[in-house]
Structure formats: C-alpha cells, structure tokens
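=== Given protein ===
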Amino acid sequence: MRHRPALVTAGAALAGALALAGCSGPGSGSSGSGSSKAELSVSGPYMPQPVSADMAAGFLTIANKGGAEDELTAVTSDVAGQVTMHSTMGGAMREKSSFAIPAHGQLVFKSGGNHLMFEKLKHQPKQGQTVTVKLTFAKSGPLTVEIPVKSATYNPSTGH
C-alpha cells in the first residue's frame, strides 16, 4: 500500500506539468504555430451607393482565426477625407476610436449596427465601382480591402 501514495503524487505532478506546458501564451516564445497571434481576414465588404454627395457608409466582416485578440484602430480611404467607425446601440449612433476583434471570433459591420462612415467624399462612388480601404490594427499588419459599390437599396443575403 505504500506505493499508491507515491504513484498518485507522481501522477499529480505529471498532470500539473502538462497543464503548465499548455499555458504558454503569446509572449512565451515564438513557436511559429500562429495560434498565439491574430489571423485576420475580411469578407462580405460593400458600400451602398451614397445618396449624399459628401458621405457614405461601408460594411464588412473581419474574422480572426487566431488565438489572440486584436483591435481595429483606424480606417482610411483615398475616396474620403476621413473614415470614422461607429457603433449603434438602442438606435443611438456613437463614434468609436477602435473595435476589438476577439480571438476565434469576428467583428461585423452591418446596416443598423457597427458601420464605417466615409466623410468628406472627394467624389461620389457609383454602383459598379470599387473603393479601396486600408484597415489598421493594433497588433497585426494593415489590410487593404476593395469594397464594391452596390445599389443604394442593396441588402446582402449573407446576414449583414
């Protein structure tokens, strides 16, 4: 019976060592697996043809397949004097300086929710054209996205 407590203790020590080995975080070495950093991609971008000569809205989804969160910190476009990010809650629109993109999650910009506002348009984008946008993140490199201009009443069937 003496060997059982030693065996249990050895098993507990091994389990503890394995648990600690699984706790290596983003700053604990460069394994190159990609799981400890954000892996961002963009889908479903579109801009309804603006009805205003100086303002337009933009929508897209940013997916993060990586194991670390990132943050969208700025959006720029050569078609606009500035691009601002907004959230909509309870019918109230609020400008935001950044949006979190959770690990293994997504950030959705959709009609009636979070959205991009293209302000001080240099020219009014027309249906069939594309608008180039640069997305800047806190940790990841920037992404350049081509946003197609759709009809003013466009409502995508993909859920946003």
Summary: Strands lie at 40-48, 55-64, 70-77, 80-89, 92-96, 99-101, 105-109, 115-121, 130-137, 143-150. The first strand starts at residue 40 and ends at 48.
